[in-house]
Request: fold
Amino acid sequence: MTLRDDRREAAIERMADHVLAEGLGAATLRPLALAAGTSDRMLLYYFADKDEVLTVTLDRIATRMIAQLDRAIPAEPRRSFAVLLQQAWAELASDSLRAFMPLWLELASGAARGLQPHRDVAGKIMDGFLAWTTIRLQPEGDGDPARLAPLFLASIEGMYLLTAVGRGDLAEATAQELVSRSQ
Reply:
């Protein structure tokens, strides 16, 4: 790697830390440059434009989250829908993953409004989570893991949204209901 590549990588790491801590509202060029330890002008030396800065930063955050989930919930052995739901829900509530979820809601909200690069990045992240889920789900009856993965993600996302709006009791009841129905 060149010195430029090393500095770019270090900037991405620091910007990812900043966005995780402060949210997308703090993901404008000047605060990102400050977090990266450089000027906004130098930041654009390392990246084509603000969209690339945001895209690579959000990609890095998603990579970190997937790595944490991989360590906590390995691909093998495959799990039933109910078991994977219990494990994933517990992990998402853990201290190490809790910071990712509000950021995900911000990103999804921007994507829903059609903002770019929010929409493209959120779609790419969701595709990654679908793949992550599919390889962890075991086939059940006629339930193909690729068909169950979107239902699984919709369940997790819905439960998290309930929690985010102060209805954690409904999220927990939903988790219990989904587990009992899929056993």
